[in-house]
Automatic annotation (TrEMBL):
Designated name of the protein: Brain mitochondrial carrier protein 1 isoform X1
GO biological process: transmembrane transport
Protein's UniProt keywords contain Protease: no
The entry's keywords: Membrane, Mitochondrion, Mitochondrion inner membrane, Repeat, Transmembrane, Transmembrane helix, Transport
Topological relation to the membrane, as annotated: Multi-pass membrane protein
Matches recorded under InterPro entries: MCP, MCP_dom_sf, MCP_transmembrane, Mito_Metabolite_Transporter
Location of this chain's protein in the cell: Mitochondrion inner membrane
Any single Gene Ontology cellular-component annotation: mitochondrial inner membrane
Family: Belongs to the mitochondrial carrier (TC 2.A.29) family.
Catalytic activity: oxalate(in) + sulfate(out) = oxalate(out) + sulfate(in); malonate(in) + sulfate(out) = malonate(out) + sulfate(in); sulfate(in) = sulfate(out); thiosulfate(in) + sulfate(out) = thiosulfate(out) + sulfate(in)
Subcellular location, principal: mitochondrion
Transport is among the record's keywords: yes
Length: 239
């Protein structure tokens, strides 16, 4: 991982490490907002009190919110991955790139890989949010800790690790699917998520499904910590 960071910085410059930052920010603004909004709204349909929450209810709400939010935000994910994969070779701005993908590949191009993306989101959100809520619930109700920033930190750290472990195999296949361009006459290597998982495992071994695990966790871990601590503090604002 560190070798890749140094090599990219040396060969393409520091800014290459931030390829795809614009669609990534747009994706988080849309995907993250829709995800947490749907999740909390669905939970309120089942329970009103923290102590009444169960793992099953939280998982169901997480899976549904993950699928819906990721499907809506898929075009930004496609552009982000292509910008990161092509680096300095990628030409044009974000809006122009959306238009270019649409003109060359149609609507299908913008939603390329939406099934594995939704599957990944179902796994990530279906693991992360329930793990966060259940960890926080038990820390508070057990009397070990109060509803404090430290509790939020421990809960978010735990959910980030759980999400990375659960989602990495689908993440590997999803990235490969999105990088397959719809070129007339070409044969796509992977036909879907299951096909991609099986072919990757067969040709490269089981641990190939966990390629990029450490950078994945180093991304999910800090992101979850910052997100949940900020979210919990915003919930306390008087409005």
């Amino acid at each position: 991982m560190f070798h890749a960071l140094f090599r990219i910085s040396r060969e393409e410059g520091i800014l290459a490490l931030y390829s795809g930052i614009a669609p990534a920010l747009l994706r988080q603004a849309s995907y993250g907002t829709i995800k947490i909004g749907i999740y909390q709204s669905l939970k309120r349909l089942f329970v009103n009190r923290l102590e009444d929450e169960t793992l099953l209810i939280n998982v169901i709400c997480g899976v549904i919110s993950g699928v819906i939010s990721s499907a809506l935000a898929n075009p930004t994910d496609v552009l982000k991955i292509r910008m990161q994969a092509q680096g300095s070779l990628f030409q044009g701005g974000m809006i122009g790139s959306f238009i270019d993908i649409y003109q060359q590949e149609g609507t299908r191009g913008l939603w390329r890989g939406v099934v594995p993306t939704a599957q990944r989101a179902a796994i990530v959100v279906g693991v992360e949010l329930p793990v966060y809520d259940i960890t926080k619930k038990h820390l508070i109700l057990s009397g070990l800790m109060g509803d404090t920033i430290l509790t939020h930190f421990i809960s978010s750290f735990t959910c980030g690790l759980a999400g990375a472990v659960a989602s990495n195999p689908v993440d590997v296949v999803r990235t490969r699917l999105m990088n397959q361009r719809a070129i007339v006459g070409s044969v796509e290597l992977y036909r879907g998520t299951i096909d991609g998982l099986l072919k990757t495992w067969k040709s490269e071994g089981f641990f190939a499904l966990y390629k990029g695990f450490w950078p994945n966790w180093l991304r999910l871990g800090p992101w979850n910590i910052i997100f949940f601590i900020t979210y919990e503090q915003l919930k306390r604002l008087p409005f």
